[in-house]
Amino acid sequence: MQLSKTEEQLMQYLWKLNKAFMKDILEAYPEPKPATTTIATLLKRMIGKGFVAYKTYGKSREYYPLVKKEDYFSKHVNGLIKTFFNDSASQFASFFTRKTDLTKEELEALKAIIDQEIKNK
Known about the structure:
Elements: H1 5-17, E1 20-21, H2 22-28, H3 36-48, E2 52-57, E3 60-65, H4 69-84, H5 89-99, H6 104-120
Antiparallel strand pairs: 1-3, 2-3
């Protein structure tokens, strides 16, 4: 299941905060801040999708992410590779290294990561 752009934005704040009450979430947003009802609706949908849960303290709810940022991102990248690169990680890597503005240092750092992964296999 995927998040909408607005849900994803809210999820970014929850990942950053780790756990938060409604007031904490609203404070994280830049001006103009969304309405409390908007955030409440987004949270309700995200709870239904299994991305967020909460603990109740009296009348207040403390929200926290159920999905790790890395896991969510990994699923997206794998979906991109499958959809746009014929399920070929090497086609994706080729596109990524040629069509982005990576510096020589960044490419060398990527090469070192790949070399380390090869060594670990």
